[in-house]
Amino acid sequence: MSDARPEEHQPGDPRLAALLAELPRHRAPRELDERVRLEVSTRIPVGALLRDLHRGTAPRVLDRLVAEELAKPSAAVERLVASLPRLPAPAEVARFPRLAQRDRNLRLAYGGLAAAALLLLGLAWRWDSGEDLGESDRLAQAPERPQRPSPRFELRPLTAGALDPLARELFESIDQGRSQLGEGG
Amino acid sequence: MGAPRRIRPAAAWVLGLIGLSSGCTGGQLDPEHQQAVLEILEHLAAAPAQVAHGGERLVEIFGTGVTGPQYLAHRERIQTDGQGGFSLEPLQVLSGGGLDDFSYLSRQIARAGFNFRYRDLQIVSPQLLIQNYLITGYGTKSVVAGRNCVQLSLQRRVLQGDPPDRRYVIDLDATSHLVLQFREFAADGTLLARSVYETYVPGVPASMVPRTLANQEQQLPLGGELEAALGFPVQLPAHAPAGYEFQGSSKIVDAQGRAWAKLLYSDGIEELFLLVRHSPAPGEARLKALSSTQAGHGSGSSLGQPLGSPTTGPGAPAAGGLEPGHLGFFEEGSLRVIQGWIYDWQVIGVGRVPLIDLQLCVESALP
């Protein structure tokens, strides 16, 4: 056995090309051709694939459930609640009808008290709303005026004649001629 | 204000009236009722511009002039196309309050644009109205110009220490929500103004010629666009009177050709106008104005200077030994005007607010 290392050839070496040309040639398996063809040409649109799939029909109940869901978003919750198992009342309740009657009476009494309290609250609110108040009460209820800063300039009275023409025009327009500035100024 | 949403009128009225009856006066409606009331008020606010109609109105103004009680009355024809176009023509003077008919009619013609936009109980902002006014009456049925109406009464809320304010009673067309009659009362019940339709014809009037506004008003948003149009910066006042909110800004050109920034404030019904322009104040003009103020006559603008400002330099009085340092005011009843020329800024404020509030508003609008 020789320990001499085989001669190394670099790509592009003409001797390597000559050696390869002398090797016996074998035909590639058909599967390889097929796979290469598929690899190169396969850009099948997903839509086309989906179209080719078998179409199943949704069960009718699904249509109804979806319709219910759209019409009434709480339908799912109601279905869930309706599907919960119902527990029977404890047998003691049936054995003690007086207790149940007392509970009913208590509920009526509490209901009446609550209604009376609401009525009183409503009356108090109406009383506080201002509609039935006199003018003095209404003014007494008025919110406080926010504190004003001090003015920076001295303010002096003007005669109507000293008004700028535009100020005068605006004043007269808002005043609708009541003060007759043109005659009295 | 945007166009109101379509609502079912019957449902809105029912809900609204329930809302009004259940304490709207306190401004503490539950959301459903408050929404219904707001929708009615939005229709009411939009109706003057959106309801095409024609008609004749009687307008009466009651007041106290310098020569005694004033009664002014005239008939006018109103026409609107429902697209914002309108015309307002005075037809007949019933009482000119001392003015001859020609002068009275001329004034009405000149003020037609203002009257249409601001006079006849125009609701600028329903939200502000509910905030600032008590709804003290509702639901009474009436007939105005042959139309079925519903009455609504409003009273301005006041703050502690303020005297009672005026109130309004309006008759709304039950179908179109147009105000067919409004009456304005002083706090003591005295009638101050009334406008009532005597005839009403729905639809676009065939003969209408839309009026063009006289002051070349350009509504522009506050900021760069307005400042570019005016050539000077404009700022909102730091202190607006209680209950008043900014509604819009525009450039106007007055009869003297001067360009002003107009800032409009409202409490829901009443407007406050703030006008500002940048213009160097000539010493002569200031001197003349101050002189006229002290003498009680004249035609110039008034002078304004900060308290304690130096008496020499650009802001100092020109000459004559007159004391500088004031803004000028004029008032008649509850209506007040403040004007001044402070350094290079001329400013005017007009509105039905306490004088101190108007002053703070005017002062804080200066850059």
Radius of gyration of chain A: 49 Å
List the quaternary state of the chains.
heterodimer
Q: What percent strand of chain B?
A: 35-45%
Low-pLDDT sequence parts of chain B: 1-12, 17-28, 287-325
The general outline of chain A is flat
Distance between the termini of chain B: 28 Å
Written as H for each helix and E for each strand, in order along the chain, the element string of chain A is: HHHHHHHHEHH
Strand content of chain A: under 5%
What percentage of residues of chain A falls in helices of 4 or more residues?
55-70%
How many helices of chain A? 10
What would you say this structure looks like, in words?
Chain A has helices at residues 14-22, 30-41, 46-52, 60-71, 75-83, 91-95, 97-128, 135-141, 165-175, 181-184; one strand at 155-157. Chain A is an all-alpha fold and 185 residues long. Chain A starts with 13 loop residues before the first helix and ends with a helix. Chain B is α+β, with helices and mostly antiparallel strands and 367 residues long. Chain B has helices spanning 9-21, 31-50, 101-110, 112-119, 126-132, 224-230, 283-295, 355-363, and strands at residues 53-65, 68-80, 86-96, 133-144, 147-156, 167-173, 179-185, 191-202, 218-219, 245-253, 259-266, 271-278, 327-332, 335-342, 345-351. In chain B, a hairpin with a 5-residue loop joins strand 10 and strand 11 (259-266). In chain B, helix 1 packs across helix 2 (31-50). The two termini of chain B are 28 Å apart. Residues 1-12, 17-28 and 287-325 of chain B have low confidence and may be disordered. Classes of the chains: A mainly alpha (185), B alpha+beta (367).
